[in-house]
Write a structure and sequence with these properties.
The chain is mainly alpha-helical and about 290 residues long. It folds into two domains: about 140 residues, no CATH class; about 150 residues, no CATH class. The protein has eight helices and no strands. Helix 6 packs antiparallel against helix 7. The longest helix has 27 residues.
Length: about 290
């Protein structure tokens, strides 16, 4: 049985990783990515100058360093006898393997002055790390069962993959500078002028987001009877549906009336849907025979 310390540290790590992704979104949206143009120092100092963008980027780095502590502690506790099975340890190893290039990539993003596609890759890795940490946090419950083959419905796996694609299409759209090429909803300024790469990228993201959002709600509805005996997973699926509806509203609002807070909420909502789907999948993947009530 995993220790209570491992369970707590895993939960803190999952919440902290999500908040770090949100903090990264705040830095991007406010244009503070080069508030500290060097690394690991900030304008050649250990403490940033009292300037808005420098302080915000420094806070982002500080939060990343702080979150690194429970992540490393989780890794150490996971290899103590009785805390983790082979699947949990595999997730911990994968997380650690990704953390190293993620830190180095963060450094390169700053030193190379925020190349858009490197920023998108940075987010892609962060989302995978979040998924791994959530899996570990679920597995860290006391008296958790073994991996149950075939317990995760194919439809749920498909919508999770679709949600990752939505997040990546949004990141690439922003990297291409296509975030604001279309005003209005559902069309782009009343039409969809095919052939413009920026418009196509923007509208493809919209279409994919709506398609996956509807699929999340549909899969949740279809699984409701099957998951009567798995209330924890069903709670996370219902939360994902709530996040989808909120996310669609925020997405429409930000193309009609762009605002920094809406952009931040959009990233927060998309990451929350991803996290909720992963939590549901992790709960379903673990055998229910010995779950805590």
């Amino acid at each position: 049985m995993p220790s209570a310390a491992f369970a707590r540290v895993s939960l803190i790590s999952a919440v902290g990783t999500y908040l770090l992704i949100l903090m990264g979104a705040i830095v991007r949206v406010t244009g503070s990515g080069l508030g500290c143009p060097d690394w690991p120092l900030c304008h050649g100092q250990w403490l940033p100058p009292l300037e808005y963008h420098a302080v915000l980027e420094y806070v982002h780095r500080t939060v990343a360093a702080i979150i690194g502590v429970p992540l490393l502690l989780m890794l150490a506790l996971g290899f103590r006898r009785g805390n983790a099975d082979r699947w949990t340890r595999a997730a911990l190893i994968a997380m650690f393997v990704l953390l190293v290039p993620q830190v180095l990539l963060g450094r390169e993003v700053v030193l190379r002055e925020l190349p858009p596609f490197l920023v998108a890759i940075h987010l892609a890795i962060a989302l995978i790390i979040l998924a791994l940490v959530i899996f570990v946090a679920v597995s860290a419950q006391r008296a958790i069962g073994a991996i149950a083959a075939g317990e995760v419905p194919t439809g749920l796996t498909a919508v999770a993959a679709g949600m990752y694609a939505v997040l990546m299409s949004g990141a690439l759209m922003r990297a291409m500078g296509a975030s604001w090429v279309c005003r209005g909803f559902p069309l782009c300024d009343g039409a969809w002028p095919f052939g413009d790469p920026l418009v196509d990228a923007h509208m493809t993201h919209r279409a994919l987001a709506i398609l996956v959002g509807v699929a999340v709600i549909g899969v949740t509805f279809a699984l409701r009877a099957r998951l009567v005996s798995r209330p924890g997973a069903f709670v996370w699926l219902r939360l994902s549906c709530l996040f989808v509806m909120l996310q669609i509203g925020v997405g429409i609002a930000q193309v009609v009336q762009p605002a920094e807070i809406l952009q931040i909420l959009h990233v927060a909502g998309g990451s929350a849907i991803w996290a909720a789907l992963i939590a549901a999948m992790a709960l379903l993947a673990r055998s229910p025979r010995t779950y805590r009530t």
